Amino acid sequence: MHPTFEGGQTPLFKRLPKRGFKNTVHETPMLPINLGKLQDFVDMGRLSTERTLTMKDLVEAGVATMSSVKHGMKLLAKGKERLRSPLKLEVSRASQSAIEALEAVGGEVTTVHFNRLALRALLKPHKFDLLPKRARPPPKLLPYYTNYKNRGYLSLEAQLKSMNLQLGNLAVSDEKRKE
């Protein structure tokens, strides 16, 4: 006879209520990146302020290791009082206070969705013969990336801004051709 057998009545483990649930299979822990740390890397000369910095640039500068970026990076506002450089960043997520602090010094943040394949293609493009297209966010995350408050890349304001930049670049290139 098994030691937990209770004579045919409902066993104790079935009479107790179930508590808690952790969906660890689908969790996506973001790597935290602080504004103060980014300013330190700009001061050391490892990060440039002239162009838009992606997660690949942050990994190459040594802000994070390639193996630690599993689901993307989240920009946090720790050290925002030290921030002086107007950075243009493209990260997976960003806190509201980090967005406000970065825009206060003249920078800008764009939050972009990367699935596992797109993130791998961004970080290790040499492993691909043909770079895959970036996937759209799943329906659960779509409201985050379509909201301009989060500076999502699918928001109408962000798309209009990028179109204006592209149209401005076309106008400049047309003027150069005429000269």
Explain what the structure shows.
The mean pLDDT is 90. It contains seven helices and six strands, in the order αβαβαβββαβααα. With 179 residues, it is α/β, with parallel strands linked by helices. It is 36% helix and 11% strand. The chain has a single domain (26-178), classed as Ribosomal Protein L15, Chain: K, domain 2, CATH 3.100.10. The termini are far apart. The chain has helices at 12-15, 35-44, 55-61, 96-104, 116-123, 142-145, 156-178; strands at residues 31-34, 52-53, 73-76, 88-91, 93-94, 108-111. Strands 1-3-5 form a three-stranded parallel beta sheet. The protein has a three-stranded parallel beta sheet with strand order 2-4-6. The radius of gyration is 23 Å and the shape is elongated.
Output the strand order for the largest sheet: 1-3-5
Individual helix count:
7
Written as H for each helix and E for each strand, in order along the chain, the element string is HEHEHEEEHEHHH
The count of strands amounts to 6
